């Protein structure tokens, strides 16, 4: 049997080194199923640590890409900022479970306010939450996705991805739901899901065989089923995050100039989305 061919007899679709984890691909040398942590980039496809060790190749795993950080510092900082804003909302008259208050009125996203010159709402609304459940659900997802993406991308590139997804969510909300006042990190979180989905696809993994695919589908369904959801922001963040993720992962690796170019392209994308959101807000009030 040639390397990478389908085995004649069925095997468990679980990682041979981590049986509790679902495998995404098979090793191109021994055909054993391997999870993302065990995947090692080869000239063609991916190999398992055992085969790589035996061949003496110098390679990197998906979770140890150049510039990666083992500590999700940006993720925890973002969670801290969201919690801090929530505490301030309560301190300025907001309700523990329903939001509101003076600070909420100053930070939420609403097209007429943005058109009046309050451009910062495109970003501040992404750190504002309406109630404890809203905050808790978004921060839980941010923590899970940040643990996956930040160590791979590195802190700076992850922060850029997050902000691009956030402003993409603001744009989507104003394009699709102009009369709705929106708040929450959902757009940015959907963007992280979109980036993770793209990352798995670029690594040759079927996202639907990982936790990301079903998680994304479930959250999209809830966006349209549950009342009071700013689904426009979810779709906008998903698209923006997916595009930014595609750029960042396509330019990842040891080449510093290539990584810098990818980061700069995403910064430019974020600037373009901000400009578009301002234009949409101005057109909405004419």
Summarize this, please?
The protein has 286 residues and is mainly alpha-helical. It is built from eleven helices and four strands.
Model description:
By secondary structure, the protein is an all-alpha fold. It is built from eleven helices and four strands, in the order E-E-E-E-H-H-H-H-H-H-H-H-H-H-H. The strands form two sheets. A two-stranded antiparallel ribbon has the order 1-2. The chain has a two-stranded antiparallel ribbon with strand order 3-4. Helix 7 packs across helix 8. The longest helix has 29 residues, at 256-284. Mean pLDDT is 84; it is low at 1-11 and 57-69.
Helical content stands at: 55-70%
Seen as an oligomer or otherwise, the chain set is single chain
Kindly report the spatial arrangement of strands forming the biggest sheet.
1-2
What portion of residues belong to β-strands?
under 5%
Can you write the helix and strand succession as a string? EEEEHHHHHHHHHHH
| Total number of strands | 4
Q: How does the helix and strand content classify structurally?
A: mainly alpha
- The value of Rg in angstroms is 21 Å
Q: Ranges with pLDDT <50 over ≥5 residues?
A: 1-11, 57-69
What is the mean predicted local confidence, pLDDT? 84
Main beta sheet, described?
A: 2 strands, antiparallel
The end-to-end distance, rounded to whole angstroms, is 68 Å
Helical segment tally? Answer: 11
**Global shape:** elongated
């Amino acid at each position: 049997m040639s390397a990478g061919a389908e085995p004649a007899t069925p095997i468990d679709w679980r990682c041979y080194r981590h049986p509790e984890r679902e495998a995404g691909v098979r090793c191109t040398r021994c055909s054993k199923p391997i999870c993302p942590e065990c995947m090692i980039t080869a000239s063609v496809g991916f190999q398992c640590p055992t085969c790589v060790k035996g061949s003496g190749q110098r390679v990197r795993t998906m979770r140890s890409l150049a510039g990666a950080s083992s500590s999700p510092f940006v993720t925890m900082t973002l969670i801290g900022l969201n919690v801090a804003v929530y505490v301030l909302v309560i301190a300025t008259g907001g309700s523990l479970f329903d939001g509101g208050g003076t600070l909420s009125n100053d930070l939420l996203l609403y097209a007429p306010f943005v058109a009046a010159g309050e451009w910062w709402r495109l970003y501040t609304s992404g750190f504002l939450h309406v109630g404890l459940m809203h905050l808790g659900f978004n921060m839980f997802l941010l923590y899970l996705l940040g643990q996956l993406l930040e160590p791979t991308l590195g802190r700076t590139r992850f922060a850029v991805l997050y902000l691009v997804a956030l402003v993409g969510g603001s744009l989507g909300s104003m394009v699709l739901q102009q009369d709705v006042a929106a708040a929450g990190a959902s757009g940015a979180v959907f963007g992280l899901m979109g980036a993770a989905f793209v990352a798995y696809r670029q690594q040759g993994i079927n996202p639907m065989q990982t936790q990301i695919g079903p998680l994304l589908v479930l959250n999209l369904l809830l966006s349209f089923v549950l009342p009071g959801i700013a689904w426009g922001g979810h779709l906008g963040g998903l698209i923006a995050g997916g595009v930014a993720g595609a750029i960042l992962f396509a330019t990842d690796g040891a080449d510093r100039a290539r990584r810098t170019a990818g980061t700069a392209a995403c910064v430019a994308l974020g600037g373009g989305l901000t400009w578009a959101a301002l234009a949409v807000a101005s057109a909405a009030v004419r």
